Amino acid sequence: MALLTEEDVRRMSNQGTRGPVVVNRDQMLTPGARDYLREHRVEVVYPQGEAAGEGAPSAPAKYRTLFGAALNEKPEHMTHLKGNVLVFKDHPRIAFRGWIDALEAEILLTQQAAAGEGYGALAGELEEVLGFVRRYIRFDVLDEPVGAIELCGYTPEQLREYSHYPEKHFGQPHFLACYTDGPALLAVNKLRTVVRQTELAAYAAFRDADGNVTRGDMILGLNRLSSLMWIFMIKLKAGRYERK
Asked: Where would I find the Cobalamin adenosyltransferase-like domain in this sequence (predicted)?
């Protein structure tokens, strides 16, 4: 029988802010652990049939967690990481998926702004960007590689080169956006910041304890997407998009 100490349950409940603590059949709470849980009002969950000593459930548990629990009901504060694996809703990979959702929404609003100003070509390029971003959930959930990156005709190397030296390639130096810039340019600028936030969320979701990344391909894709947003802004400022 494994003992769960106060230190164990403190870690499992993340200082009492996440909860609940799941106690399996082969585990027992120490008195100190029980006192901590009671004092901090942390919920204790026993997988079906275990708390009352009813023996093993008649059917396999529907869900499992990263910390080894087996559950037959999905708690509202947990969600699917992949398959039947549940995690807390503030898990870094769930937070990352939330940023992907926000990024998709911002792309659509930017397309609307571009089309409203007559930049049909830009709206079309953003449709390609939208398709790329929508595949990110698949890359995550199914562990699929991003593969070769080419966005709107630019390779990763070109995206880096053109965004770093815009005057050389577009005749437009780096600039700071201003409220007098058009709606499309300002929308792309906002979109660029959301891409950046999504990249940071990806790093938080796919790094190990030593800070090394496990999905460098996903982070690279978002980094180069940020470069593409800057290229869009440069091209708008330089008048490289025809308005219709």
From this structure: 73-235
Q: How far is CA 209 from the centre of its chain?
A: 18
* Helix (H) or strand (E) segment spanning residue 68: none
Domains with residue ranges and CATH for the chain: 1-54 (no CATH), 57-87 (no CATH), 90-236 (1.20.1200.10)
Closest C-alpha among 237, 241, 195 to residue 218: 195
The mean pLDDT value for 57-75 works out to 76
Question: Are 183 and 210 contacting, i.e. CB atoms less than 8 angstroms apart?
Answer: no
Query: How far are the Cα atoms of 43, 101, 123, 161, 164 from residue 241, in angstroms, in the given order?
Result: 58, 28, 11, 20, 20
How far is 129 from 136, CA to CA, in rounded Å? 11
Tracing tokens 């005749």 back to the chain, one arrives at 171
pTM (global) more than 0.85? no
User: Tell me, what's the pLDDT at 146?
Assistant: 96
**Which DSSP symbol is given to 45?**
E
Q: Closest Cα partner for 156 from 236, 233, 219?
A: 219
Among candidate residues 189, 194, 190, the one with its CA nearest the CA of residue 230? 189
Side-chain half-sphere exposure of 176, counting CA atoms within 13 A = 1
What average pLDDT does this structure show over 157-183?
Answer: 97
Tens of pLDDT, residue by residue over 70-126, are: 888 888 998 999 888 888 899 999 999 999 999 999 999 999 999 999 999 999 999
